[in-house]
Backbone:
C-alpha cells in the first residue's frame, strides 16, 4: 500500500493540473485530490505523491514552477 503525501495545494484546478503534468514529466506518479466543496465552491485541490517521492517532487516544484 502506498502512503501518499501532499506536495502542492491551490484553489484553481488548472494550476494543480500543470503541477501534476510537470511531475509526470519527471517520471513521478502524482494524483490530484479534490477538496473543493461542490455546493459552495470553497476548498482546494491537492497534488499528492508517494511518500518516497516527496523530497524530489518538492524540489521539482520549487525549481521549475512559478505562477507569479
Residues:
Amino acid at each position: 500500500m502506498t502512503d501518499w503525501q501532499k506536495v502542492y495545494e491551490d484553489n484553481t484546478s488548472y494550476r494543480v493540473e500543470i503541477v501534476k503534468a510537470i511531475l509526470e514529466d519527471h517520471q513521478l506518479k502524482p494524483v490530484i485530490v479534490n477538496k473543493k466543496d461542490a455546493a459552495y465552491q470553497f476548498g482546494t485541490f491537492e497534488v499528492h505523491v508517494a511518500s518516497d517521492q516527496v523530497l524530489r517532487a518538492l524540489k521539482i516544484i520549487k525549481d521549475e514552477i512559478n505562477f507569479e
